[in-house]
Amino acid sequence: MAVGVSSPPEAAVFRVDGGTVAAGAILRLGPTGALQPGSAPDGAGLVLEIERGEAVLLAVRFPTRLGPRYDAAVATLLKRLRDDLILSYRATRTLTQGGRLDRPTLEAGWDRLLAGVALLSPRLRIQAANVATDDLLADRRFFLPPVAGVLRPAVKADAERMLDAAERILQGGSDGESLIFAALRGPQRLLMRLYRLDRSPAFGAVPDALPRGADRLLAVIETEQPGGAEQASPVASTIARMTAGMAPAEAFETSLCRA
Length: 259
Description:
The protein has helices at residues 67-93, 103-110, 131-137, 156-170, 235-242; strands at residues 3-6, 13-14, 26-29, 43-51, 54-61, 116-120, 126-129, 176-182, 189-197, 216-223, 252-258. By secondary structure, it is of the alpha+beta class. Strands 1-11-5-4-3-2 form a 6-stranded mixed beta sheet. A 5-stranded antiparallel beta sheet has the order 7-6-10-9-8, with helices on both faces.
């Protein structure tokens, strides 16, 4: 079984409810153009954003004959991961708009997000952050005041695990890490998802503001929700586990496209 990632320029979609497509909608995809009522599906898609009248779609396709078996499962998976996938797209898209991005432009693009989003250097120095991140960093239950701009969890064990996770990511041993930060007091916990922004980001070319010779880390920080750490699994990896043992010819493909 193989899971490929590609970026075709267009994808025809069928509006399941016949209404206006908005971010978060789950769509069924057809093999040749818009899916007609009664025809066999060959995939499902999640609308990540509406940009200039077009839907940006994360599509998961599979052989048509497998539709009855996997159609509902893939749609359910996209629904379960919906909030994380939309947040990941919006946070990353700001970095790949093209041209040169200065810190105020980058932060303004992230300020509409409710979760904390921060661009970190390999040494975990905060290079840009939205207002939600500023609010979280001011909470002394979870973070110490930054020294030289370096992110510092309040609990020593959490700080050590964050450093270890960043090292694994930057050395290529991990695509991303999910970390739970404990509070110095009280039951509340924070979830941090840490990813590398390398030379081949999923949504476009690296802008001039990010030197190609220096990898950066993207941190997403928010209050932990039930099942939050599990939801950090990439959709392709989850599908790979779900379809383990399938023949190579029965390949699933995840792609980012517009409709």
